[in-house]
Write a structure and sequence with these properties.
Strand order of the largest sheet: 5-4-3-6
Number of strands: 6
Shape: globular
Strand content: 15-25%
Order of helices and strands: HEEHEHEHEE
Radius of gyration: 15 Å
Oligomer: single chain
Largest sheet: 4 strands, parallel
Structural class: alpha/beta
């Protein structure tokens, strides 16, 4: 049996630097799955993988959902249109505020956005849990 070596790799530092530099000089407007989204400074904008996630997630009107790493909130907004309720969580407070703004702009009231490091601030069960972290350098 091979032992897994403990790594000194800590992505949080590099991710924090990346977030600070992410389109820091402008606001980006994106259309994703027919939903107009604003990506404020310091928030990863939606892209093709967000559209794919929205398309493939199977959710029913009685379900509640959790999205880890909600970013702009576009996936949570799309799921909220089909589900009973949901929570979008992100470690980045800028993303939480950005998601709230986008949900308000689309009159979505059945999803709550909170700051959480993955499940740290989450204390309930969900029918559906999704996570679509940024895979691309942006």
């Amino acid at each position: 049996m091979q032992k897994i070596k403990k790594s000194n790799f800590n992505a949080l530092v590099s991710q924090s630097k990346s977030l600070k530099n992410r389109h820091k000089d402008n606001i980006v407007q994106v259309k994703c799955s027919g939903i107009d989204i604003i990506a404020n400074k310091g928030v990863y904008p939606a892209s093709g993988d967000s559209e794919l996630m929205i398309e493939v997630v199977n959710i029913s009107p009685s379900d509640n959902f959790l999205e880890i790493g909600c970013g702009t909130g576009v996936i949570s907004i799309a799921l909220a249109k089909k589900a009973n309720s949901g929570i979008g969580a992100d470690i980045n407070q800028l993303a939480v505020e950005n998601s709230k703004l986008n949900a308000k702009n689309h009159n979505i009231s059945n999803v709550k956005f909170i700051k959480s490091n993955v499940f740290k601030s989450i204390n309930q069960k969900f029918d559906v849990i999704v996570c679509n972290p940024p895979y691309t350098k942006h």
